[in-house]
Specification:
221 residues; TIM Barrel; 10 strands; 36% helix; globular
């Protein structure tokens, strides 16, 4: 099994090219968020998405919950995947399916002590994949990703075992812990932002080290 790598918080076409050259199969492009790193203007998201080579998925991270607003973001950006970082309005995922039939949906589940497994089971039939992260959407200023925190991987494993869609694992991953994360959760893919950045910039040495760790861990999955 080859574990996919999604490099998030891509800030430029140059960073996208570096990530792809080192083996990333997906790029994360962050639109406006209530908090967290990596936010770039809508115009740059569209530029990076247009420059992505065939076979590399482009994810738009959105904090919007209204399906019409989310659909408008997708049409403006041209991405192939919508990453819903917050719980959307009732019926939103079904409406997005109808409005954007060629676009894949990924629902973020913020893994906490209680309720995450139930949230995942409810969302899974309506999306193409789940992404398990370490945000706190219950805070007054929501944290919807990019926290650099590791959550309980045993809960993530239980979610992966309980659903029938692919699962991406995020939350505090870096070259030193990704092998353990893969061994514990056995995800379809891993996703990271801060773990391969220095002073906010994508670091080639850390990225290469992360890719080597994923490749080695994949061989044992």
């Amino acid at each position: 099994m080859s574990v996919r790598v999604k490099v998030c918080c891509i800030a430029s076409v140059e960073e996208a090219r570096l990530a792809v050259a080192r083996g990333a199969s997906a790029l994360g492009l962050v639109s406006e968020m209530p908090s967290g790193p990596g936010v770039i203007p809508a115009e740059r998201i569209a530029e990076i998405a247009a420059a992505a080579p065939p076979g590399v998925a482009t994810f738009l991270l959105t904090s919007r919950t209204d399906p019409e607003e989310i659909a408008e973001q997708q049409r403006a950006s041209g991405v192939g995947v919508l990453q819903l970082c917050d719980e959307p309005a009732p019926g939103a995922r079904a409406l997005l399916r109808r409005e954007l039939p060629g676009v894949k949906l990924v629902q973020v589940i913020h893994v906490r002590e209680t309720g995450s497994l139930e949230e995942a089971r409810a969302a899974a039939p309506e999306v193409d994949a789940l992404l398990l992260d370490s945000g706190r959407p219950d805070l007054p200023i929501k944290e919807l990703g990019g926290t650099g925190r590791v959550h309980d991987w045993e809960t993530s494993r239980a979610i992966r075992e309980a659903v029938e869609v692919p699962v991406f694992l995020a939350g505090g991953l870096h070259p030193g812990n990704v092998a353990s994360a893969i061994a514990t959760v056995r995800p379809f893919g891993v996703d990271l932002c801060s773990g391969i950045r220095v002073d906010g910039h994508l670091d080639e040495t850390l990225l290469s080290s992360f890719m080597r760790a994923v490749a080695a861990a994949s061989a044992g999955v």
